[in-house]
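The data layer described in this paper is built around a simple, fixed record for each protein. Because each token names a local backbone shape, the row as a whole describes the fold. We quote a single record here, exactly as it is kept in our systems:

***
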Amino acid sequence: MAVRRKSSALWNHFDETQPKIAKCNYCTQTISFSAESLGNLNRHLTRKHPTIVINNSNDKQITSASSTPNDSSTITDLSLQLPISHSRSTTFSTQLKIDHFTESSKPMPLSKKQQIDNQLITMIAKEYHPLSLVEEVEFKKLVYLLCPSYKLPTRKTLSENFLPQLSLKLNQDVKMKMEKAQAICLTTDGWTSKNNQSFLAVTAHYIDTETMNMNSCLLGCVNYNNSRTAENLCNFLRSMIKEWNIENKVGAIVSDHAANIIAAVKLEGWRSIGCFAHLLNLIIQSSITRISSVVQKVKSIVEYFKRSTKALEKLHELQKQMELPLLKLKQDVPTRWNSTFEMLDRVYQVKNAIIATLALMNNNLSLSTDDWIVIEEALPILNVFYDVTVEICSETNVSLSKVIVFCDLLRDHVDQHLVLLDAKMRIENQYALGMINNLLKSLHFEMNKRLNDFEKNFLYSESTILDPRFKKKGFRDEINSEKAIEDLKLKIRSIRSEPSSNLTLTHVSAPISTNVVSSTEPLSFSTQPVSIWDKFDRKIASLTPQNSTAAAIVELDKYINEPNLHRQGNPLQWWYSRRNVYPILYKFVLKRLNLVATSVPCERIFSKAGIIQNEKRSRLSATKVSQLLFIASNYQS
């Protein structure tokens, strides 16, 4: 059926110049059309003049844009009133929406769309957003205003396509890193989610030989429903190591001190390292019971201010009046001793405000003078343990080499406080200081019980020797340091150093007319040019060890006799700058200084997992949780 040309609203914007040829009244472009359809005319307005409004035969105003995003009708507060005029002297006004001005006339390039898709799933994983974010109306409006030509994927597309694809890509990236790593240290631990799903995590730690930085990767945090026997855990670790093709690179596996995981590591013959932070936690938790009565009182005070809004408001008011820092009180967590320290420290910082507030609001919770003395004396003792815990848990710094040093310093710290306390108790409060004395004695006992064997463990001793900040000075017992050096000499004999052009000192030779002849050598009439340095080079060569065994020992002796690096220096950068001076030792260093002292990296993974699988996202499957964790931990922008 032929189109009734004069009844179509499109003819308000076009003139028919020839049969089946129309001219645009705005850009004067000519467009062909057929007798059956005016689609070319409509597409021209849509593409070239998206703000033009077409007035149809029913006087209903519609825009030339043929498609708008879902829910765009809700964006009414951004609309504008603009007059539109055309060649037929028909003047009218209409309400134009903001999307008429922002909508792109060209489709988005595929590469750009893929880039946005990738960033979207990365943002969701790293910032712990729900996958349903793409279904939220306000988020869809925001994305449309920013980029009208981008169409948000559905939640199903995110979950079933984008998430596995990005996880697979990162898997390949991590495998490349594992392939380049010279030696790898693993940490492992277990976790149970709010949904009662059991997970096992494994992280890898290595030294990047290009940047000489400590790097970490999550190899997997996977759902594990088997019983956690030593044999099952061993099989799990074996399969994980095989999957990443690092069977010959694992230097040690770090775990907590649970008997099953330690037995699992030993079943396969891997080297086991117990978490030092876990040991410190056991030592403090056992000893802090000596002042538990005071800790419990402080905990009750914190809980009172957490529950009572009036009391908390009064506390803040008095903090301002007394010009004290406006600090929030902290509550302790039973499984983390350092949270108990933070609770005591925070209460002591606002001591006067708490005393005044409790006197006005709830005098029954007030602390006695003895209680405050206990807090005051305990804080400097526990503060050192707190600092050690924070420093040893770093993933970016060399840590295992510090364990022997920290053990020595902690013992001296406790012994010194015992001596000082003994003098105080002769003249001051016996009850309060008696509790502190019990705390110190318990710390002394627990440390002697749990921290005795590190200097005799070759992983700890060799790491300490090869750390240029410590060397022999890091040991408490000189006999143990000398034994560690001798054992290290036996091991590095088997390492072969590769010749390097960087190690050869070359000289520019100039031909001379007369050969320099040594009186101890036969006359030579070689026509080859000689260097003035030849005799000297032969002399040095005769003094340089010609086999790798002797060279390794010479390297170690020379290294030991060098001045120690400053404590705040970077041992990895120090070794990198001397990799050509100590080529044999350098290879061994990559296998020792990459070892970490704690399994805290796995604990951090579980903290992320707890954020991902919260009450609002409890329906996430274990597979999706694993993929989100893998992306959140390994993706680097």
Notes: Residues 71 and 137 are 8 Å apart (CA to CA). The chain has 23 helices and twelve strands.
